[in-house]
């Protein structure tokens, strides 16, 4: 069963709050362009891979408080969307396209793009905090985990920050830039279902590493119509890339090794088998077809 | 007794976490420029007016969990500093100076300025969430209140967002752009000390309104050496201003009315008298001397 409708509904409820629509009519006036940009930046949903992993882990752990899991999934996706909006800004990638449509700063201008990213980050924490009335301990732990994987010194902000350093620590760079939101996904899924976060680190870490290699393959091989954003960005910006280091075959082989390890790392839980299947399905989604063809050829 | 040393220590501990120094040596590598920018953006401290109000309310309510109050004060100041960093960006005010030194994007470049603002926002929520081990319910409530006053639809992001609208709702604009962090201050102070937030709204709201008028006076009358940032920005950007509307005398008179109402609104609590004194002291700090002289002359 696809989790996407559940995730899209949770994201949509969160955005309604951010737009002041959830509070009902008659409230304070809201700046409409920024309100509209919040929706624009979070739709269409794409694969929603991170919240899918989060909910899959929560379900594997029993999902005893679905409202808390929904909030966690929405919060994680909001952070991911915020990072895309800010990474696309002229001072970073200066991307014209995202998910096949103009990037937020192209559609709404740079001031509203900065504010859209800021607002989505804040909304993510608000969504989590609102579950405090259901279970304050889980809410606080979810906020802490998401913050640690998003900010400094080890979250996606740190990852982006590495690109301004003269000398990049590659392991720290990949772990924070790409890996952090995958460890957030597995750990927040466990927390949302009342389980310890720590045993779920390795699964997220390995999925993140696989995703990084898959992203490198996509960046090196796919054309703009498949990707919906400019390709060859790594080469253009001189960023490190697994394909440059290992070639296409080597990168594909590394990716398969990592995914095998990911499945082996799944902690013992009621939904272990279904979760292993989800990891395999996610892998099929993230490996670009051009890379499969190139590795065969 | 000045609360500034207590606030500065709390902010400094928060920044140490964000820089990866609080976790001790031997941890993961950290991008050093971004780590340095976090410190740069939060020092020198300035008047720390918002966290002073927060701690004053917490003390008036008994301050039974000083660690939680400290975290709340630090979080609020981090959000304020983050907003200054992003507001100074070229796409907004393009400010060269802040607190008498180059703005973050002038000192570190635009990419790191965007990331510094993002990281400070996230760190604020992390600092609050970490108090969850002491009192999860207060932690979750603090995150919720701070998020509501920072993001969309009614926080400082909304305030900044109004400046991109063709038609500005002035009441909503001022309340969100300037007032929101003052209501956050009084309400978070109450929550940190285990009290209801709602009765503390009016005090924060009135201090915020007073601050807005004082800021308009400063912007209209002071020179760059007193302010440490470019003056006449409102006039330059065509933003609404109480001095333009009422003149200097009229604005001074409105400011005094608002402050009188603020003191009258203080809820009954053990430290009521001391809190009234703090509001008076804060007023003396925020009213620019040039406006006092102009109103006399």
TrEMBL record, chains A, B:
<keyword id="KW-0149">Chlorophyll biosynthesis</keyword>
<dbReference type="GO" id="GO:0046872">
    <property type="term" value="F:metal ion binding"/>
</dbReference>
<keyword id="KW-0125">Carotenoid biosynthesis</keyword>
<keyword id="KW-0808">Transferase</keyword>
<dbReference type="InterPro" id="IPR008949">
    <property type="entry name" value="Isoprenoid_synthase_dom_sf"/>
</dbReference>
<keyword id="KW-0602">Photosynthesis</keyword>
<keyword id="KW-0460">Magnesium</keyword>
<dbReference type="InterPro" id="IPR000092">
    <property type="entry name" value="Polyprenyl_synt"/>
</dbReference>
<comment type="pathway">
    <text>Isoprenoid biosynthesis; geranylgeranyl diphosphate biosynthesis; geranylgeranyl diphosphate from farnesyl diphosphate and isopentenyl diphosphate: step 1/1.</text>
</comment>
<dbReference type="GO" id="GO:0015995">
    <property type="term" value="P:chlorophyll biosynthetic process"/>
</dbReference>
<protein>
    <recommendedName>
        <fullName>Geranylgeranyl diphosphate synthase</fullName>
        <ecNumber>2.5.1.29</ecNumber>
    </recommendedName>
</protein>
<dbReference type="GO" id="GO:0015979">
    <property type="term" value="P:photosynthesis"/>
</dbReference>
<comment type="similarity">
    <text>Belongs to the FPP/GGPP synthase family.</text>
</comment>
<keyword id="KW-0414">Isoprene biosynthesis</keyword>
<dbReference type="Pfam" id="PF00348">
    <property type="entry name" value="polyprenyl_synt"/>
</dbReference>
<keyword id="KW-0479">Metal-binding</keyword>
<dbReference type="InterPro" id="IPR033749">
    <property type="entry name" value="Polyprenyl_synt_CS"/>
</dbReference>
<dbReference type="GO" id="GO:0016117">
    <property type="term" value="P:carotenoid biosynthetic process"/>
</dbReference>
<dbReference type="GO" id="GO:0004311">
    <property type="term" value="F:geranylgeranyl diphosphate synthase activity"/>
</dbReference>
<comment type="function">
    <text>Catalyzes the condensation of farnesyl diphosphate (FPP) and isopentenyl diphosphate (IPP) to yield geranylgeranyl diphosphate (GGPP) needed for biosynthesis of carotenoids and diterpenes.</text>
</comment>
